[in-house]
């Protein structure tokens, strides 16, 4: 099946976001993609928290989400909004992935579990937990090419989540992201290939890229990695664009047969401290 990834530079308003993302989704569909994925924070990127609070709304009221639901139905494609920043039913905010069917219906959602709280050497300070309530459940959702594991950006650094998704049957795992430039340059491709090799699954990684209107800078370089760890498609830049590739679930079966790490995994206790064992 042909899949398409959309790379964005999401603006600070939803109207501008719609104007950017819709033509790229249509471009991916025109290139034959039956499944299309967008990056983290597809609907809005705004560092000013007061302005962001005024813009974030519920899933059903979000203009970008509704526009993409209409586009999925119009194009007859399955579309993964890598994430939208939305308000939960309890009034808290969530960083939420949304899988939309070819009829425009919401098929599955996933709230980002791991919050990016960090002080970077560049002076950048991120406190995602001060804005969003973390999710508590991993999600695998059906697609035309097989079960898809859902994750978002910083989740990438927690391999146990990916092991659980693969054990639950995921043949592909989405990692939509808005990686900073320093961490992207150092770790982006290495971690994407590692997750593919560890799980024997395809990795679909649509990214934010470039200098945004709110002042942040993201890495871009969207990519698709096959189960053996080879990057089969990538964008070698941080400009908005589209990436397509054909994926084959037989390669998942072959990779997992060649290195049956999922089948060979065992539960264990510990670790015990060496000094306590010695006594």
Total number of helices: 8
Q: The biggest beta sheet, please?
A: 6 strands, mixed
* Strand content bin: 25-35%
Helix content, binned percent: 25-40%
Low-confidence stretches: none
Rounded to the nearest angstrom, the radius of gyration is: 19 Å
What sequence of helices (H) and strands (E) makes up the elements? Answer: EHEHHEEEEEEEHEHEEEEEEHHH
Counting DSSP E segments of at least 2 residues, the number of strands comes to 16
Give average pLDDT, whole number.
Answer: 95
Distance between the termini: 58 Å
Instruction: Kindly name the structural category.
Output: alpha/beta
Outline, from the CA principal axes? globular
| Cross-sheet strand order for the largest sheet | 5-4-3-2-1-16
Structure write-up:
The chain is α/β, with parallel strands linked by helices and 279 residues long. It is 30% helix and 25% strand. The chain is built from eight helices and 16 strands. It has helices at 14-30, 49-55, 63-75, 159-167, 181-199, 249-258, 261-264, 274-278, and strands at residues 2-7, 35-37, 78-87, 93-100, 106-111, 117-119, 125-127, 139-141, 148-150, 172-174, 202-205, 209-211, 217-219, 223-225, 231-234, 241-246. The chain has a six-stranded mixed beta sheet. The radius of gyration is 19 Å and the shape is globular.
Question: What's the topology here?
Answer:
Layout: E1 2-7, H1 14-30, E2 35-37, H2 49-55, H3 63-75, E3 78-87, E4 93-100, E5 106-111, E6 117-119, E7 125-127, E8 139-141, E9 148-150, H4 159-167, E10 172-174, H5 181-199, E11 202-205, E12 209-211, E13 217-219, E14 223-225, E15 231-234, E16 241-246, H6 249-258, H7 261-264, H8 274-278
Parallel strand pairs: 1-2, 2-3, 9-10, 10-11
Antiparallel strand pairs: 1-16, 3-4, 4-5, 6-7, 8-9, 11-14, 12-13, 14-15
